[in-house]
Amino acid sequence: MKKILITALLLVSVLSLNAQTFGVKAGMNYNNWHSSEDISGEIDPLLAYQAGVFANFDLSEKISLQPELLYTAKGVNSNKGGLDFKYRYDYLDIPIMAQYHFNEAFSVNFGPELSFLTKAIISDGTESVDYKEFSESFVYGLNLGVSYQLPIGLIFDAQTTFTLS
Fold first, then answer.
1. Other Cβ atoms within 10 Å of 133 Cβ, number
2. For 88-103, how does the pLDDT look when each residue is reduced to its tens digit (9 = 90+)?
3. Global pTM value
4. Do the bridges between strand 21-30 and strand 47-58 make them parallel or antiparallel, or are there none, so unpaired?
């Protein structure tokens, strides 16, 4: 895991040396969860956080490439048999987004995402259990999103990820 983190940090660092834009990204994460396990009861998405860095490279007047390195918390709240559980998964996400810019402010984004599991915890409010060994350590997917940049440089970004693994 340390090798993956160091490699990802070096990649973003080297790429950012030639980047035309470099920045910090932070926001909220709200996700749905689908499982092959037989889970009866109510499942509600968990509101969590995401934070990291990005670099943006103009490939042409309308197209740019934006690799990112993000720490993302995901999970769900579950009520099964009258008991409440929280499933929490933390990932190191590496999305590589291609962006099409309609103008200086608005763009659409699309690209792959690689995710490396760093922590998996199940909690009932009083006790927590490490669930990492029973979870997928690597997942991948496709991102689709839109971005709007204010004249002061602040970017509002909304994305959805379709996990393929």
1. 7
2. 899 999 999 999 999 9
3. 0.79
4. antiparallel
